[in-house]
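User: quick one, fold this
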Amino acid sequence: MGLISNLIQYFRGRQRPSPTLLWQPNWSAFLTQSVAFYRVLTPENRKLFEQRIRLFLLTTTVEASAFEVTDEDCLLVAASAIIPVWGFPDWHYFNLKSVFLMPNAFNESFQCGQPDSLFTGLVGTGPMSGKMVLSQPTLVLGFRNSRDKQNVGIHEFVHLIDMADGECDGYPERLKEYAFSIPWFELMRQKTHEINRGKSNIRQYGAFNRGEFFAVSSEYFFERPGMMKIKHPALYAALAELYQQDASAIATNIKTRKKALCPCGSGKRYKHCCLPRA
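Assistant:
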């Protein structure tokens, strides 16, 4: 059991957590290979990203009952949390205490393998207050496939950002003053109309309600920023202003030449290592 997994046991009350979480070199290697956002940061910002991961994991439990949670699982959960709020260094998810990983998609009773087991991520209020549930395979796939405009981890953490003002209405007042919400809601209405008419490459689920549009368009923003900037320039500009991030600059930097050494640190050329999985 890895150090992060031991931390999970601490938060279950079996022993007191240590005051610091010792960073392991292989965690940096894993993030370099698996998280494009981290890979293109400067060395100084990578250290900051790692510090924010440590803080997140010292204040949030990651657990599962059907399998053993790995260090890699915890790192992907934490990366999902940090990426959307990277432009807000003092952000803290006060509305989250634990993340529960499921072995597959699940239903409202948290059962996998049933006809209605369609959820891959869930946050909420009431009994779900302070909790998040994620399908572990879908979480991993969200980082492994960076071209499908989908990342369930980012999606659910965007919901938490949205809900930080007490309402999941598609406008995160903790990031931006509510006075700026009117043009955003009008843009959202226009884009939802395009989705419903089949005139958009934003996935259909984004038209379900305002909260889902915000989460779905945010996935798109962080996964395919270059495409969004071309196909939805107004939406891209609004999200870049909201998140205080230019995600398209990151997308430009993450393009690795096929014959270059793989950024995962394996020593192999990119085309013989991680390119086939990109």
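User: anything notable?
Assistant: The radius of gyration is 19 Å.
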